[in-house]
Every structure is written in C-alpha cells, then in structure tokens.
Design a protein that fits this description.
- The structure is a single chain.
- The chain is α+β, with helices and mostly antiparallel strands.
- It folds into four domains: 115 residues, no CATH class; 123 residues, Alpha-Beta Plaits (2-Layer Sandwich), CATH 3.30.70; 115 residues, no CATH class; 82 residues, no CATH class.
- The chain has 20 helices and 16 strands.
- α3 packs across α5.
- The longest helix is centred in the C-terminal third of the chain and has 22 residues.
- The chain is globular.
C-alpha cells in the first residue's frame, strides 16, 4: 500500500514495509525541508519550530529514519537492549514507535576501537530506536544547519568534502600577495566537551528529546556512567550538532577583521578553513595570530565548553609548510604545492604492510583483492593534489614489499622462478603482481586479477563547491545534481552506477519515456539531498533523464511558501 498522502499526517496504522512509496516519502520530506530553509533565512523561528514538528511527526519522516538506520553499516550492531530491526514487520512497528511521548533514550554501549597512533578511541553505540530518533530529528535540523554554519566549514556536510577544503586552502594561499602565516588549530576532544547548557540554549530542536540524548550516559563493564558534556556519542546527529556549535566563528572573524571584500580584510588577510575539529586561520603576521586571533578563538570555544589542544595548535610560516587533512601545504620558491603529507604516506604504507603481514600464506589473488581497495581508495583521496611523485613512491614500496612476501613463501627458489610465478608481463609492463583467480558464484570462469597501481590514478583538478550552496534549498537543486553527476562520471565506480541506473530504466528517460543515448545526453535528478551522502544512487534517490526534460522538471518545481 502507499503511504498516507499528507506529509504531516501522524498515522498509527501498520503499513506493509515493502510496499511503501519511497519516492513519495522523499518528495514530501524534501518539501518540508525546503520550507524550513526559507523560514530560517527569513528569521521566522516560530514557523521553523512548526515545520520541524510537522516533519518529525509525519509518517514519511519516521519511515525514512527507520530505513536509514536499518540499511547502513551499523544495522547489525545492537545497543544495550540487544534489539535489531531486521524484518519488514519490525521496521513497520519501529516507524510507528518513533514518538516523543514517553520517549526516554537508553544509555550507550561503550566500546573501544584502535586509532592510527595505537591508542584506543571510545565509541558509544545507541540502541536502534535512539539511532532512528536521531535520524528523524536530523531530517528537521540539518536544513537549519546548512543555512547557518560557516561558509568554509566542510566536515560532515552533504555535498562537501576534504577536497573542497583543500581547494579553499589553495585559493587563499597560492598568490604572491596571499597571507604568509597560518594558525593550525585543533579542538581538544571536540565531541566530548561541548557544553550541554550551550547546546540546550542554542540548538533549534525539541529540547526534551535533545536533553534525553545528552543525559543518557553509557554502560561499561556493566556499570552506568553519566555524561556531563559533549554530543551524543556514536549518534548520527552528533557531527551536525558539532558543526552548529562551531557556527559563527568565521562570522566573528569577519566582524573583527573585515568581510571578504572589505579594506580591513585585505589589510589583515584573515581567512578560516574548517573540517570538523581541525581548522586553519591565516593572517598577515605571526603577531596578529598570536595576540588577537588565537585569544578570540579561545574565548569563542570557552563559551561552548571547548578548548584548543596545546600540542596540536601552532603558528607556522607558509614556507615551512603545515599538514592539514592528510596533505602538506607549503610554498617552494613562492609556488604553493599541496601534496600527500609524509605522515599520511607512512600511515598508508603501514596499513599495506599490516595486510601483507596478516596473509603470509594467502592465495595471491585473494591478497590482491585485499590490497586493491586500500590502494585505490588512498589514490582517489589524493588525486586532487600534487600526488604523482607520491604515487610512484608508494607503488615502488609496495612492489618490494610483495617481492619479499613471495621470497618468504619460497626461500629456496631462485629469483627468476619467483618472477615467473608472481610477477607477469602484461602489455608494455613487466613485473606486474597478478594471478589467475579461482571461479566463484559471481565469476563462473577464472580470470586474471592484478594489483592496482596508485600511479595509474589520473590527477584531477577538483572544482570547489560554492560557499552559499545549500542542498536543501530548491534554488541550488540543479547545481548539486550537476556536481553529483559529474562526480559519478569521473570515477570508474560512478560510471558503473550510472550504467546500472540506465539499465534499470531500460535506457529510457524517466520523464518522457524516450531513449537516452550518447547523442541525447543525460542528467541525474535527485529526489533527496540524502543521495549526496550515499556511495550509490538508489532508485528512490536518483533517476536519469534528458537534459531538456530535467530542465522542464525544475521549471515546474513547486514554489516554497
């Protein structure tokens, strides 16, 4: 059966989960989110509250929230109540149970995961119901966050990435007249220390629900511990709460040292680039950063219960360079280069060594399958930077690592035997680590698999997102769809997703029903901003259509009131 036709209807009728019209659900939530954006821009906070209430009490919102937490990577991880929603009936009942009435969050289940430096990071795992409630209220909160957060904050935001932060660093530092001094900032245990009173006073959402999450506590070794500060650990709403807590820092800097196009801005050259709890602030001199900007930042954070990390916060000259988000940013004879940092390269190679070490007797093809996603993922991350030399270096290191792996397996065999068995010639290349894979259910015939080379990844210039772009504002809808379509087209995996969409639609435009060809061109039409955060494009999120049909769709788009 279809979902109730009214977005705001709070239905208590049990629905057939597989029959829910998800495209309709997404469209209804999308309209409410657009209205929240408009009301926020106009400063009509009473209307914002009303629209949030409508969204969080709608069937569509509750169903989408349950769908999100039952289809992500954590769907098989339970909280302290050991409850999972794995059947259609359980999901249907869960959607009906999402209500603020008598809602009391349960404590988090505390677990520890290893960090890159060998230390352990604590992680709180909420129950399925608490995760779904957070997903539901995130639908109503994120449109406000995207309208109010810092223009140059790029962490945990739909449609934004570290590549955008890297490009902004290049924009503000590349010129001869660019600022020479940089404050490298890191917020100490950002997610753990945010002031609860500040969150309750400043976050525009249901205070009762928010307070429940903040005071839920956590269970470790069968003991209940209270939480006195920080965002809900392990919750999907936590990054958005952190972004909203840090919103306003860029505005304070502009008020003090001038906006983008003012004379004061050109005098002090103060710019801010943020990614979650890491940020840089530029300035005309070391004295300015030390005596004025750093105290301003410390005061801004103190009012929110946070502080800078003394070990990781420092002031650096651009000629010395600094590391940011896995890249090293430095000027060489006046030319700015942003390339993979030594620390990042070492961490990557250490991960590769660990995989090889854990598979001393593995089948060669299986080892290749273990390594390829790691190598390709690292190369994809750095393909937007000056990375060619780093790619060649890691390829060389990995080749020698695998040579030693092969020698250890056959210590009594000569080098030419090792080469013939493990390192083949293909095309114009010699010494390629490759093997014939065994037949599987998916691949009935054996085939050659070879190790991915980082240096085969093409360096691509990333086009930075526009600062004011808002995925929940209808005026930016086609902009995000074009960016997303281009992103898919530029990646082999993305082109596979596009091909699957085309096949699912039998090669036909979803609007006019006529064939989509290479000559006709295509556009992706997204049903929800949620698609910007997913690895693929579910049919309920995106469809292919002709460019003209796509233009007609947006010319007929409803007006936000």
């Amino acid at each position: 059966m279809n979902v109730p036709t009214k977005t705001c209807a709070s239905s208590n009728a049990l629905v057939d989960w597989p029959e829910i019209d998800w495209a309709k659900c997404n469209q209804q939530i999308k309209r409410l989110q657009a209205r929240i954006v408009k009301a926020t821009q106009e400063g009509r906070w009473g209307k914002v509250n009303t629209l949030q209430w409508l969204l969080t009490h709608s069937f569509s919102g509750r169903a989408i929230a349950v769908k999100r937490v039952t289809e992500n990577k954590g769907k098989r991880t339970s909280g302290v109540d050991k409850v999972l929603w794995s059947t259609p009936m359980a999901k249907s009942r869960a959607a009906l149970s999402l209500s603020r009435r008598n809602y009391k969050p349960l404590p988090l289940k505390r677990v520890y995961i290893p960090k890159q430096n060998g230390k352990l990071r604590s992680l709180g795992i909420p129950t399925m119901k608490d995760r779904a409630m957070q997903a539901l209220h995130l639908l109503a909160l994120q449109p406000i966050a995207e309208t109010t957060v810092n223009r140059n904050a790029y962490g945990f935001r739909p449609g934004r990435s570290t590549a955008d932060a890297r490009e902004q660093c290049h924009t503000i530092l590349a010129r001869r007249t660019s600022p020479q001094w940089i404050l490298e900032g890191d917020i100490k245990a950002c997610f753990d220390n945010i002031s609860h009173p500040w969150l309750l006073a400043n976050i525009p959402m249901d205070k009762k629900v928010l307070q429940g999450w903040l005071k839920a506590g956590y269970i470790e070794t069968n003991r209940l511990f209270p939480t006195e500060g920080g965002t809900p650990q392990g919750g999907i709403i936590s990054p958005t709460l952190a972004n909203m807590t840090l919103a306003g820092l860029e505005r304070e800097l502009e008020n003090r040292f001038g906006g983008k196009t003012t004379n004061r801005a050109s005098k002090f050259k103060v710019n801010c680039v943020m990614y979650a709890d890491d940020f840089i602030i530029t300035g005309i001199s070391k004295e300015l950063l030390e005596s004025e900007i750093k105290p301003l930042v410390e005061n801004f954070l103190a009012t929110r219960g946070m502080e800078l990390s003394p070990e990781k916060t420092k002031i650096t000259h651009i000629d010395e360079g600094f590391d940011f988000l896995g890249w090293n940013v430095r000027k060489y004879d006046g030319k700015l280069l942003i390339k993979p940092s030594m620390k990042n390269v070492k961490a990557f190679l250490s991960k590769v060594r660990e995989v090889v070490k854990l598979h001393p007797s593995a089948n060669q093809a299986n080892l290749i399958r273990q390594l390829n996603p790691i190598i390709q993922g690292w190369a994809n991350y750095h393909k937007v930077a000056v990375s060619k030399k780093s790619f060649v270096r890691v390829d060389n290191e990995i080749w020698h690592l695998l040579w030693r792996w092969a020698k250890r397996r056959h210590p009594n065999k000569p080098n030419h035997w090792i080469t013939r068995k493990y390192f083949k010639s293909t095309g114009l290349r010699n010494g390629v680590f490759m093997a014939i894979s065994t037949a599987t259910k998916l691949n009935r015939k054996p085939k050659w698999v070879k190790l991915v080379l980082a240096s085969d990844t093409k360096i691509q210039r990333h086009v930075k997102i526009k600062g004011d772009a808002n995925p929940f504002d209808p005026r930016w809808e086609t902009y995000f769809e074009d960016r997303y379509g281009l992103k898919l087209w530029n990646e082999p995996k993305g082109r596979g997703i596009l091909l699957n969409l085309w096949r699912n639609q039998e090669g036909l435009c979803s609007y006019c029903g006529q064939r989509i060809t290479k000559e006709s061109g295509w556009k992706i039409h997204l049903a929800s901003p949620l698609a910007l955060k997913t690895g693929g494009v579910p049919r309920s999120h995106g469809v292919l259509m002709h460019p003209l049909c796509h233009k007609l769709i947006h010319s007929q788009t409803w007006q936000v009131v």
